[in-house]
Every structure is written in structure tokens, then in C-alpha cells.
Amino acid sequence: MKNNYVRQLALPAIIALFGVSCSKDASQGNLEKITGAKAQIASSTPGIDSANISLNWAQGYQKIDGFGAFAGRVTPFFESPKRDSILDLLWGNSGLQLNMIRGEVLHTYPFNSSTGAVTIKPATVDIDVSPTAAAYTGLTADQKTHISQLWIMKSVKQRYSTPIAFASTWTPPLSMKTNTSVVSAKWFNGLNYSCCSSSFANYVAGFVKGYQNEGVSLYGVSPSNEPENVFSDWPASYWTAAHLGEFITNNLRPALNAQGLNGVKIISSENAAWGTANNFLSSMDKSNVDILAGHGYVEIGDLIVGTRGLNQNPSIWNYATGNKPVWVTEASDDAGTYDASMAMGLKLATSMHKFLAECNVNAYVYWLGMLAFQNNEALICTRSDGSLEFPKTYDVMGQFSRFVRPGYFRFAASVSNNGNLRVSAYKDPATGKFSVVVINTGSVPVNCAVALSGFAASSLTGYVTSAASTAHWAATTPVNANASGGFVVNVPASSVVTFTGTSTLQ
């Protein structure tokens, strides 16, 4: 969670926590070169570049679990008069079609330590209460947060059958921390292991059970959020890798099982920097971790020199993941000045491409779905007049979430003769549907010759997000295959285009 949108860092601690720069594992190196003659294309029009794209159906990679967003900041979300439209715009068919939602194991719930019960909503107020009703306005700030999050999570699950809802824990209840008066992790403030490991595990399990009783079965839960962050003022808890692994194995997994929540997956460790997560997870007991997770912010070395925001060059983790799913559970641009332009959209596109096509992640979750003002940390913003604004990051997110569906597998895509293009491809083996996401960071359009290997398709349809586009994912005229079975497609300058088709030969 971000506070005042500033990451305050102390140099000695930064150096101690520095994540390695993970070079790409040679065994998972560049995509295999596709043999055979490639179609060539030469542009005769000044100001238009050319490129060759090769797609190889037979070379497969990771399964895609999906894309999502965090439900907070929940109170302004719940109180927004446009909240139903916002839900549609994020999780509905007319919007991003997200299939994941992230919530928070808030630290302020009433907890019965004897029974393990967590009260996740005010007992006398229905969650469908109007934000203007006296029953709601009379609640405390914490109670409003509780009911707001539950309403959002439950609405998303019920309206859109969103299959993956999960929650992360920023901090244990204050009574369970080493400094019981501080909500942050400053001065290494974290769980008091001498008294409270079992109690905290029961608290997390009680939260999951409480949501299940309300009809929201959580897919997974994380006991930590950015466990290395001992610098910021927002709610947080300091963990060492050893203690977090021990807690998950000895306390959390048994507590979940005792509540009949054996199928709920444990997610860890959600460090802010991808390289830090690599270091953290590589040295902890992961035997009871089901999903390996990190956040998509810049590396600590970048922070030292004053760079913040979306990680533009993450590296594949240099330890064996044991074939467990790998998720980016939070990412946004927290660098400051609001930028709704395609420049920011291309930063998100580059980050998503690098994580999916180079780091082999299975899921990508954006930080905030909406904000009641304008800021880079949200996919949907609110102008001063109350109207909604869609920065280009919203459209770029949709280039992946709308067309790269859960259950698709990434397959081999390579580009030659153009340094401004990034290409990744995804397929549904059951139906033959496929999507190819092409990112052009250059200032001129590119004509691309697309060669297919191991499959055939009769046509491709493109959906465009560019600086000039006004509609979300504007569809282009379908392009038919040429005599060689390939395609020639155009990718505008500074754009993201997803081409979709169906294989006729697998």
C-alpha cells in the first residue's frame, strides 16, 4: 500500500536488502529461432518501418492464470455514485474483463481469540446499505472500510463469476506486533513471534472463513505485503525470509486446515521489487507456499538513484520455482506526476511484456482499480467534476486482459529487423483461438510480415490502443492470409495492437 505516493528509503537498509540483478537463466534463454525462410517486407513509403514477426505454435511456455486489480481504496470506491459502472469497466464484459480481484486482510477486525472468529462486517448493517443512509454514515472509519471491501469483493464475485479472489495482509493486528502502538514496519516492527504466531494465523484463517460465510470463497491468501519495507508510514509488518517460511509451514497452513480451508492457496512473499522477491523466496521455506509472488516496481538499485515506477527490466528469478505459479500481485507507476498519455501506457505495456514473455509469470495484478482523483496508481481516475477518466494504462491493460484469457498458454513469438517492437503470443489449445500482442515504442508506424509455423489461420483482426485512438480497443479491418499463409499487418507509432485469430491447423 502506498502513502503519499513516496517510497522513503534508508541507504544502509537498502544495501542490506539489495536484490540481485537476476540474469536470464540460460536454460530458459531467448525463444528458439524458427527455422525456414521468413517472409520479408520492405517499406517503400517514407516514414514507415518494417519488421518480421515469427510465430511458432509448437513451442509452448507458461499457462496464463489471468489479470486483475486491487479493490482499494475501498471506502471512496464504495461511496462513489459511479461504483456500479466502475465494476463493469473493470470486471465486466464491456470493460477490462479482469478475472482476478485482490483484497486486504485488514488488521482492524474484531477478533475472538478463543473461537478464532473474525467479524468482517458490522453486525447491524447490511452490506447493501446506501452510502448516504444514516446506518452507514454513523459507522466508524474502520467499519466503513470493512463493509466497503466486502461489498466490492462480493459484488465482483456474484456479478461476474470472477474465479480468483485473494487477499494480502499488510500487518497483523497491533496487539500482535513487537511495537503495539505503530501500524508501520519502521524499526523492523513485525509479528511478535514469542506470543502471537498462532493467534495471527488464526486471525488470517478467521478472515478467510468469514468471507467464505458471506459467499466469497477466496482462492488464496498472503500473510505479508512487502515484508522488507521498514521505511514507510503505511500499515506494514517486517518479516525475515526464515520467519515467514516458518510461520506459513508451522502456523498458517495448519490454521487454514483447521477451519476446513485446505483448498485455499498460500501466496508469498510479495516483495516490492522483483529482484528482492527473488532473494527473499530463494532463502525461505516454500514447502507450503502454493503461489510465488512479487510486485512489479523498480529494483532497489533504481530507487537509490531516484528512479521509481513500473519495472521496465525485470529478470527471471534465478532459482527453481518447482513449477509453482508465479504472480505479479501489485504494480503501478508511483513516480509522481499524473500522466494519462500513451507514454505511460507504453511503460505499462513494456513492463507487462517483460514479466509475461521474459519472466514467465502466470498472472499480473494492477495496484488500484479506481481512485476518486487523478493519479497514475489507478486504472480509472475521477476528474474534479466527478466524471471518470481513462488513462492509456486502462486501455493497455485491456490489450492483455481482454484478449489473453485465463487458460491460454504463451507460445513462441520473435521479431527481427526492428528494435522498437516487442511481441508475445498466446493460444487456447482447446479452441485454437490465439492472440498476438505487438508493442511499438517507436515514433513511426511499422509494417510487419507475420510468418506462422506449426499452424495456419485465415485472417487476423487487430485492436488498437495508440496516442491517437479515442475508442477503447478500436477494431481494425480483418487482414486475410496471403499466398504463403502469412500476413502483412500495420502497427501504428507509439501503440499497442493485439491481433486475434483462430488456428485452422494445429
Automatic annotation (TrEMBL):
Transmembrane segments: none annotated. Keywords: Glycosidase, Hydrolase, Signal. GO terms for molecular function: glucosylceramidase activity. The keyword ATP-binding does not apply. Residues 139-268 form the Glycosyl hydrolase family 30 TIM-barrel domain. The keyword Hydrolase applies. GO terms for cellular component: membrane. InterPro entries: GH, Glyco_hydro_30, Glyco_hydro_30_TIM-barrel, Glyco_hydro_b. It holds the Pfam family Glyco_hydro_30. Coiled coil: none annotated. One of its GO terms (biological process) is sphingolipid metabolic process. Belongs to the glycosyl hydrolase 30 family. This is O-Glycosyl hydrolase. The lineage of its organism: Bacteria, Pseudomonadati, Bacteroidota, Chitinophagia, Chitinophagales.
